[in-house]
């Protein structure tokens, strides 16, 4: 039976995944997306963003796209950063709604359909992770980062970098995206708030990685703070 959780017959959805060296996870993520989206009764596309992977990820995503006309692939010749991969996904999206999650299998895509009815009232659904499967240090960093961003930009977000977000695509016709690192999530929400877009939050479950490992964090953290200083003043100047 087709699951119909849409709010309008005009709705369609772009679902994208950023990957960097996720050869063990790519097919699993794609198969999960195809299964869930096939039950939702929506026109959809799947976008696989390869951020300069040096393993077999580029070959795998190309092979998937060759077999499935609903799949588009974006390749970065070299690793450009998490935010750059997200930017590519948002810009490649053509449907009325845009959803993304990471390509490391730490979320269950079956939790996407219940978010769709919320788009009747809101422009963004920005979930928070339930029972996060990360060590104490990473949870502390995430808490402090979320607190800092909310303080600077007047946001009320529980989990800034939860990689399970749903947007109306029209948002990306109206806001800039400059950050190439992990700041991009925060930049989008800050700019969207300034533009008057509405958002809500719900909890989603978080799972251990099925394969692979998280990349080094020290360089990523320093880059995030550098970008924050630059973007903060730009957003302030925009009013």
Structural notes for this entry:
- The protein has 239 residues and is an alpha/beta fold.
- It has a single domain, classed as Alpha-Beta Complex (Spore Coat Polysaccharide Biosynthesis Protein SpsA, Chain A), CATH 3.90.550.
- It is built from seven helices and nine strands.
- The protein has helices at residues 26-38, 57-67, 82-92, 136-153, 171-174, 184-194, 218-238, and strands spanning 12-19, 43-51, 71-76, 97-101, 124-125, 128-130, 164-168, 199-200, 203-205.
- The chain has a seven-stranded mixed sheet with strand order 3-2-1-4-7-5-8, with helices on both faces. The protein has a two-stranded parallel ribbon with strand order 6-9.
- The longest helix is centred in the last third of the chain and has 21 residues, at 218-238.
- The relative contact order is 0.16.
- Residues 1-7 have low confidence and may be disordered.
Q: What's the CATH first level?
A: Alpha Beta
Give the CATH topology. Spore Coat Polysaccharide Biosynthesis Protein SpsA, Chain A
Biggest sheet details: 7 strands, mixed
Taking all Cα atoms into account, the compactness measure Rg is 17 Å
Number of β-strand runs: 9
Overall pLDDT metric: 91
| Beta-strand percent range | 15-25%
* SS element count, helices: 7
Helix/strand-derived category reads alpha/beta
Strand order of the largest sheet: 3-2-1-4-7-5-8
Multimerization status: single chain
Q: In total, how many domains does the architecture comprise?
A: 1
CA-based shape? globular
Extract low-pLDDT stretches: 1-7
N-C termini distance? 49 Å
- Name the CATH architecture: Alpha-Beta Complex
Secondary-structure element order, N to C: EHEHEHEEEHEHHEEH
Can you say what the CATH homologous superfamily is? Spore Coat Polysaccharide Biosynthesis Protein SpsA, Chain A
Helix content: 25-40%
